[in-house]
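Q: Structure tokens for this one, please.
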Amino acid sequence: MNQYLNFIDGKWCEPSTGRYVPVINPATGEQMGEVAQSAKTDVSRAVEAAKQAQKQWRLVPAPERAGYLYKVAELLKQRKEQIARVLTSEMGKVISEARGEVQEAIDMAYYMAGEGRRQFGDTVPSELRNKFAMSVRVPVGVAGLITPWNFPIAIASWKSLPALVTGNAVIWKPATETPATACEFVKIYEEAGLPKGLVNLVNGSGSEVGEAMVEHPGIDLISFTGSNEVGRKINERAGGLLKRTSLEMGGKNAVIVLEDADLNLAVDGILWGAFGTSGQRCTATSRVIVHQDIKKELEDKLVKRTAALKSGNGLDETVAVGPVIHAAALRRIDEYVEIGRKEGAKLLAGGHVQSGGGLENGFYYAPTIFTDVTPQMAIAQEEIFGPVVSIIPVRSLEEAVEVNNSVEFGLSSGIFTKDVNRAFEAMRDLDTGIVYVNAGTTGAEIHLPFGGTKGTGNGHRDSGPAALDVYTEWKAVYVDFSGKLQRAQIDNN
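A: Here is the predicted structure, written as tokens:
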């Protein structure tokens, strides 16, 4: 049986507890290995290793640090198919999506390697004679990364690569459900030759390892992607410790379809956004806000196309919808579907656990469409994290924007229209961190900031140059070569 261990101070090691829990393939229900369940002691060991490594790493020139990231990118390219198959086996997403996720990590590695020569500060004119003024970026120190199971390598790359290129050390707690992908990624860091102690992997639960990371004084920042409930707790505790946090949490994303839209294109975008990754994305399309004049036509097209989607093991190239992550997720999705029925929404497709035909041992939920949903219903307000989409009719763009903005989240939105004026109105007025025009709510690229407004996050961003702000502090530097004491504003009047 595969054992997924910790990686601390350059060595693979067992947890101090000696405890492991099973890792289950969600497509088959079979156990594919067991993962270490670590404790506070393991976190402390990782912190000590990281602190020692970071003392030297911060002195390595950033372009030289970037050289390691280029090696990471090349190794990821070589092992793309292998990692994708591991990812699908433990997480469930279809193999084409898994390949795309590994490609995202490859892209991020190349991009952040480029940032090794682009960690720009500012040089500015001083207000005094014979004085030089500038600002530079410096690393924060030790970064604690807590990542989810739905994008087990992409999100880890969003966090670890900018942390490393800016001179920090990393302690990473991956999700318990997806340790195999985490181990594959850390093996690549190991093979790329990064100094020992710089990247540390500590497997375990949020209540044990995650909490210990938040509490440990040797960890200078926490970057977290996950649920709002956990993110709020992290922020509350870390705030009391004056510890920096970067939080990327939930979404209740909507596609707006106006009466002039290309409906076939809209259907393509909705199906991919709602049922790709079985709806288990923070950017998943969970609401369709459609102009009432085309509602029936859009529904007919969606129902027909949804009926043709094949569910099954994601390693089968013909499968469009894989399993959800585990039995608890299956129950939660089904509970929300029942809530939708009781609220009075009309079920057009799905609405049930799938079994039979080779699906009986996995965790499969039928792609589900509700219509005649009102904006106040729970299924239109709360994140379901499954293949469930709600159709909400509106009479205008203004009403559509109001409905879009009526939820507590603000991650992603999309609009389908041929009217450039209304597209720009939507771009201005949609209260989300990401806006798509004539596309669904998914498909972010790594060179732009990823994150959202309101309950989705706390103002920081993953990806793009904005990610550098998470892992660096600004230092203002003044060089006075006047040979005398100059007292800034006192002498400048």
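A few notes: The mean pLDDT is 97. Residues 253-437 form a domain with the Aldehyde Dehydrogenase; Chain A, domain 2 fold (CATH 3.40.309.10).
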